[in-house]
Amino acid sequence: MELRKSKEIIDNDGKTLRGYAILFDTESRTIFEHGRTFKEVIKRGAFDINPTEDHDVKLYFNHDTSMPLARQKGGSLRLFEDAKGIRFEADLPDTTLANDIRELMVAGVLTGEMSFGFRANKDKWEGTNKRTVEEGKLYEISVVVDAAYPETHSQLRSIMSEINNKRIKLLRRRLK
Predict the structure, then answer these.
(1) Which of 9, 19, 34, 161 has the most neighbouring CB atoms within 10 Å?
(2) Cα 114 to chain center, whole Å?
(3) Cα within 13 Å of Cα(31), Cβ side
(4) What are the pLDDT digits (tens) for 112-158?
(5) b/e map of 27-48 (b: 16 or more CB within 10 Å)?
C-alpha cells in the first residue's frame, strides 16, 4: 500500500471533518519511495469510491489502523468525486482521539493536512521521475502532520472561530 499526504483546514460544529483528500491532475511534492525519487499525479476517475460488501474506505489518524475516526460502512465517512478531486465528509466520534485531533487543530499543532493510502493498479511513468496514477484502489484517508499534496484541504466545522480567537489572543499578547 502506498501513502500520500495533502493539506487540510477546519470548519463549524467541531464534529464534522470535511474537505478534499485527493486533488486530480495536481502534482505532488517530491516522493521518496521504493528506491525512487519522483513526483506524482492522480488522474480523475483513478479510484472507485463506492463502498462494496468486501471493501470500504476508512479515516485514520496518521495512517494508524489502531486510530480509526470514521468509515464508509456505517455512514460516518462519505466520499464524493467531482471535477476537482475526491471530497470527503466525516462525522467524528466523541472519543479521546477525535477530541485530541480537534484540540491539536485549534492549537495549530495539526495544520489541517490530509493523506491517503492506495494501491496503484495502472500507472504511467514519464522517465523515472514523474508518475501518473490512472487506476487504483483507495484504502484510507488520514489526518496527518505533513502533506505530499499541499493544495488539498479539509475543515472541521465551528473550530475556525476558536482558532481565530486563540490567534487574536496571541497577537494581543505579543503587541503588549
Answers:
(1) 19
(2) 2
(3) 23
(4) 788 899 999 999 999 989 999 999 999 999 998 887 887 766 666 54
(5) ebeebeeeeeebebbbbbebbe
